[in-house]
Amino acid sequence: MSSEVEINWKRITPTILIVVGVILLIIFWSRMTVTVEAGHGGVLFRTFGGGVDTTRTFGEGFHVIAPWNNMVVYETRQQEIAEDMQVLSSNGLEIKVDVSAWYQPLWGELGKLHVKIGTDYLRRIVIPAMRSSARTVIGRYTPEQIYSTKRDAIQAEIFDETKAILDEKYVQLNRVLIRSIILPPTIKTAIESKLKQEQEALEYVFKLEKAKQEAERQRIDANGKARANRILSASLTDKILREKGINATLKLAESANAKVVVVGSGKDGMPLILGGGN
Question: Which are the contacts of 183, defined by CB distance < 8 A and separation ≥ 6?
């Protein structure tokens, strides 16, 4: 009897192990598999193997890991953050600025980013870096410069200073945009009035310069014509004029119109043409 029980136990042991394995697989399946979506990267934390793996970023797709490990997934696509800030100009005037930044974590440095900063890196480093740089840069300029002539330069400087901070924090900054600048109404009106006056003054100077250039052109043209006339007058002697007159008269005499040509009867010995009507 004991022998039969022993034989039956040996037969069912593999089945029990298979069932237990399937149950464990079902229980731990969600912890053993990770799907990294498009535009994301994974960082593996090894519970019994030294913590965060800083040497590898797991790409998109399906991954199988040990159930006691954990994978943290980061979005690696370009993202945008916009901030409304109150900043001070160089003369202490308060200005409202809307600044946005395009950023993304560095793919190959996700492990280091996770160790040093964590998933909340936007709040911890990106926003503070952008705010600090914007306040520092705008504080170098007057309201008039900020509103009109130096906007592109300010935008470029904010980008450079923010990028210098984020490069050391494993975050790539792609661009900084100043979306709007709002000045106090009285200051804005004064600046716009000044700009309008400057524009009118520039327009007046342009008209004066254009008139001056036209006058100079006419003077040069008149001088050229006078010089040409002097040269022509100096070259036209009596003999040359007489010869040209004879040639012109002979050509006229060859025409079909009836006429009488008396050679040497005109003034200064020029041919005299009588008639000429049809």
Answer: 93, 95, 143, 146, 147, 191
Q: Say how far apart CA 23 and CA 26 lie, in whole Å.
A: 5
Contact 85, 137 (CB under 8 A): no
Matching residue, tokens 């106090």: 184
Q: What is the CA angle 188-128-86, rounded to 5?
A: 20
* Nearest in space to 157 (alpha carbons), one of 173, 172, 137, 181: 137
Segments forming the whole domain that contains residue 151: 79-183
Name the domain count of the chain: 4
Query: Looking at the structure, do residues 94 and 22 belong to the same domain, yes or no?
Result: no
Residue 189 placed within a domain? no
**Taking Cα atoms as reference points, which of 196, 204, 136 lies closest to residue 165?**
136
Domain final residue pick, 183, 204, 222 = 183
Would you state the pLDDT for residue 196? 58
Please state which of the ranges 29-33, 55-59, 71-75, 267-271 shows the lowest mean pLDDT.
267-271
**If you average pLDDT over residues 112-127, what whole number do you get?**
95
For 176, the token pair is 């900084």
